[in-house]
Design goal:
Shape of chain A: elongated
Oligomer: homodimer
Strand content of chain A: under 5%
Helix content of chain A: 55-70%
Radius of gyration of chain A: 20 Å
DNA sequence: GTTATTTTGGATCGAATGGTCCAGAATGGA
DNA sequence: TCCATTCTGGACCATTCGATCCAAAATAAC
């Protein structure tokens, strides 16, 4: 077989720009014309590479989930309070640094499209679960190590933390400033005692 | 002047249906054709009464804010813990009862349109402030009454509560079930001591 | 060099969009 | 009764949407 003409663009590079655009403007508000312009590739190349708009959106969402939205590891050799504080602080820092895009592309996707898009819904539920499980495991370890009191319920605590993290998504949109968001973290993490 | 032919529909009734549609599908995903069909009035009547789509959206949003999304009073003669628990529980109950529409129309509006719509942004910031102030005032009173410990910071606590409330918006979308959401409330409210 | 295959981007498609026009129906005042 | 005014709903408009077509350019295998 012949290899013919090679692509003139890098797929992942283009996808990153698509992530940025969808992240900032959402699905419906982003037209394929906007995409062609922002991606800097031809219309036909775009359709050939990614399929239709919906497929491009899912590809961008998955790229986000494996990149900026990736689930960091939770090593057990770090004090749990410091660790959780760092995770939350990172989220706040990102929200303050990029107020124009929401805190989390997946969260925005869930709000906009969960009702009409099972693929988005599936990813959102899956990621919510992963997040909850990661927190739960870490908190169980912390409980076993005596880092947190024995009266704590790791699973409930984990859900609580995920909920707080989700709350930051909206709080950050109202006030993307450290002076507003940091005190929320203090109270949120104070339940660990 | 003559009065001519009276309208055949009730403005608020129609607006309620518009709220329901925008609430469920968002702004971009709702077409004016959908609106005409769902509202049961003629296209021209719709435009004559509310102006264009954007104006209709803002009218619906304001109707929501004065109706289902209205800020309840926070009387000081009710135990503050029971009061807050009731507020949060009401939100959860509503989310469980209507999983197809998000927890709060304003929250969805903020996520979808804040970046490109100053009017929406303004309403979201204003309401966030109102909510925070209402909680703050109630918590200050509770502190003065000795209902909560003297070490608490009412303002920080209020922001924390608003953040938790916002978090429910997303948590409820992932799992609109009491078994999942109720434990979150327990932990959230446990910071009051 | 020739050829087969692929990329590329402009042209273009039908459908859907938000919005307007207009003729006719319905009403209250004279 | 007649008229002025308003409401109503179908027809209609220009634009934009997502998506496709097609001819020209570019490349690897032969």
């Amino acid at each position: 077989q012949t290899m013919a003409r090679p692509k003139e663009f890098d797929r992942d590079e283009v996808l990153d720009r698509a992530v940025d655009l969808f992240w900032r403007n959402g699905y419906e508000a982003t037209s394929m014309a906007d995409m062609v312009e922002a991606l800097g590739i031809g219309r036909q190349s775009l359709y050939d590479t990614f399929g239709d708009k919906h497929a491009l959106y899912l590809a961008a969402l998955d790229r986000y989930l494996g990149g900026p939205g990736a689930l960091g590891a939770l090593p057990v050799d770090v004090p749990v309070r410091k660790q959780l504080r760092a995770i939350f602080q990172t989220m706040v820092d990102r929200a303050v640094a990029h107020p124009e895009r929401g805190l989390c592309m997946l969260g925005a996707a869930a709000v906009e499209r969960c009702a009409e898009d099972d693929e988005v819904s599936k990813r959102f539920c899956r990621r919510t679960h992963e997040l909850e499980d990661a927190f739960t495991r870490r908190l169980e370890q912390a409980k076993a190590d005596g880092e947190i009191g024995a009266h704590h319920d790791p699973r409930g605590l984990a859900r609580y933390l995920v909920n707080a993290l989700y709350g930051l998504q909206l709080s950050a949109r109202a006030h993307p400033r450290h002076a507003f968001l940091d005190p929320i973290l203090d109270v949120t993490l104070s339940v660990l005692g």
